[in-house]
Description:
Blueprint (H helix, E strand, L loop, with lengths): L9 E5 L3 H13 L4 E5 L3 H9 L5 E3 L9 E6 L3 H14 E6 L5 H9 L5 E6 L20 E5 L6 H8 L4 E5 L2 H26 L4 H7 L2 H6 L7 H10 L1 H23 L3 H21 L3
Parallel strand pairs: 1-2, 1-4, 2-3, 4-5, 5-6, 7-8
Antiparallel strand pairs: 6-7
Helix pairs in contact: 3-4, 6-10, 10-11
Amino acid sequence: xxxxxxxxxxxxxxxxxxxxxxxxxxxxxxxxxxxxxxxxxxxxxxxxxxxxxxxxxxxxxxxxxxxxxxxxxxxxxxxxxxxxxxxxxxxxxxxxxxxxxxxxxxxxxxxxxxxxxxxxxxxxxxxxxxxxxxxxxxxxxxxxxxxxxxxxxxxxxxxxxxxxxxxxxxxxxxxxxxxxxxxxxxxxxxxxxxxxxxxxxxxxxxxxxxxxxxxxxxxxxxxxxxxxxxxxxxxxxxxxxxxxxxxxxxxxxxxxxxxxxxxxxxxxxxxxxxxxxxxxxxxxx
Length: 285
């Protein structure tokens, strides 16, 4: 089944940052028959996508959009997506969001009685943001999460599959947000915390001497803050639980070091290695 055969012929992507523009580029390649427009209020972002002809039409504001669409994709932070949902539902046959927190927008859809809404979350990204970092291959081989409570219709699932993504389902918004706090949001803060702690050293000396472990662990510190402020606050309770678990793990290492407990330290290192290996064994090819 193709997007055209299933009824999707026109798409509006609201938010031409990294994810929205990457989605546009990937759709342009996999579905050349589609008409794909964008809304991007940020002047520099908008100029970039216009200069590189990434979309058929580009609007500076939602008010400028007059035509209806088969699908509107809200590629914005969680709270912005919530605010835009009623407008998008009035302009499109279906609305899909791609925010990394699902509870707020699912609640908003239920409150507004919007039924043609498909919450989703592509597990893809980069440390750098904006359309200049966009990549048509960004979703290739990556999970794209949908919710069993809001199942994706065939035409949406087909569209996402055409981007090279792997469809994955979680039970509901609560299950999604709890999992993402462990696999993404809390991990992000662990990376930033390591960067803040390491910054006690001189940047000039540290940059010259640092090995791969430093650059790997602190890579996420280069992420734009605007996206993460909204995301972390929207998933605050689950992230706090993750930080509590992270703190307990660090305290275990601290206790072993305080007591020069070689056996305890070795046990923690071995346990972490075994759990990492368990993840690696289940990692999709």
